[in-house]
Amino acid sequence: MSNIWYYFRPDEADAFYLFWTKQLLISILIVAAFYLLSQLLRVLLARVGKRLCNLTSSDLDDRILDQVSGPASWLVFFAGLYLAIKRLPLPEKVSAVASGALFIVNVLIVATIAYRMLGEMLDRYGERVAGEEMSRQLIPLVQKLCSIFLFGVALIITLKHFNYDILSLVTALGVGSLAIGLAAKDTLANMISGFTLMIDRPFRIGDRIQMGTQSGDVVDIGLRSTKIKGLDNTYLIIPNAELCNTTLVNHAYPDMRVKGRINIGVAYGSDVELVKGLLVSTAASIPEVLPDPAPEAYFTAFADSSLSLSLFFWVADYTQLFATQDKINCALNNCFKNNGINIPYPTRTVLYEKEPIHATQD
């Protein structure tokens, strides 16, 4: 049977054995030290980190700490194992395979930590900012895009570590992305606009918006389009890109209150101050009209056949505006009748002039 020390003299074999024993012992000590550091890090994150997180009002840091404390301790341990294997005088192929595998493990752990942190932040953004409906549709897509990005970065770092030429890979990815972008530019534009709506939040589910002559209540915000239920019970499907590039009026922002206006004309000769007082008192008697801000009436113009006045009032819910205007108009009609205030019809006076009759001479 062959012996590994056969090619060494006794003194060389002893020196080689001592050298290997020393190197192996140092590597074991490195692994043990990093293992203790990983356990110390776990304890510090569980105790000190928890205390620091309790000082903040948000629970986002607590959730991130719970997600990354385990992988972080494993990262420290595998980093020490990588250093221990790297320094051992192993054969070149064995060292390359062992250190390369540990490098890949470390890269995957770092990617896992980054993915978990991004996931928690996206979940918090969806809960607090984006809303339930938009969070349900867009947050999973963003998480998938982030995972693809992290996977690509990890792949590039790994290939670079093994001295592979990544230029061709990056070029292929760029050309492929360009081809996909040109083929689906409209769809991508709508998707990007959907992200913009999620971040900017010009409206939410249930808000009443007006775009040009079209208005309605938002019932769904999708990746490609937004669905709006019109006031006449129609269903409008508008691409997100169009919503991002036009002027919108959001009746529900910053709150549900809305200002109503009623224009009315009274006959010339009417007591304007009396009419203004009747307008304000009549509007204030309607339960749906807010007392603060109080109703206001203004004499706005001298019209052709009437004195024009405007009544302004506030309603707590914009969906009740038309019904409130109906109640105010009915009350004003009765009030004007009881107080002798006339609402004139448009009149026009036409004067006919007769041509003078000249006596004819024979």
Summarize it.
With 362 residues, the protein is of the alpha+beta class. 58% of the residues lie in helices and 14% in strands. The protein folds into three domains: 10-181, no CATH class; 201-250, SH3 type barrels, CATH 2.30.30.60; 258-338, Alpha-Beta Plaits, CATH 3.30.70.
Q: What is the 3D shape?
A: elongated
Q: Give the proportion of residues in helices.
A: 55-70%
Largest sheet: 5 strands, antiparallel
Q: Multimeric state of these chains?
A: single chain
Q: What's the number of helices?
A: 9
Radius of gyration: 40 Å
Low-confidence stretches: 1-8
H/E element sequence:
HHHHHHEEEEHEEHEEH
Mean pLDDT: 81
Number of strand elements? 8
Query: Strands of the largest sheet, in order across it?
Result: 4-3-2-1-5
**Terminal Cα separation, in Å?**
166 Å
**Share in β-strands:** 5-15%
Based on secondary structure, the structural category is: alpha+beta
Number of domains: 3
Keywords:
3 domains; 362 residues; 5-stranded antiparallel sheet; SH3 type barrels; alpha+beta; disordered N terminus; 8 strands; single chain; Alpha-Beta Plaits
Structural features, described:
The protein is α+β, with helices and mostly antiparallel strands and 362 residues long. The chain has 3 domains: 10-181, no CATH class; 201-250, SH3 type barrels; 258-338, Alpha-Beta Plaits. It is 58% helix and 14% strand. The protein is built from 9 helices and 8 strands. It has helices spanning 10-54, 60-87, 92-130, 132-161, 167-183, 185-200, 240-244, 272-284, 321-338; strands spanning 208-211, 214-221, 225-230, 235-239, 249-250, 258-266, 296-302, 307-315. The chain has a 5-stranded antiparallel sheet with strand order 4-3-2-1-5. The protein has a 3-stranded antiparallel sheet with strand order 6-8-7, with helices on one face. The N and C termini lie far apart (166 Å).
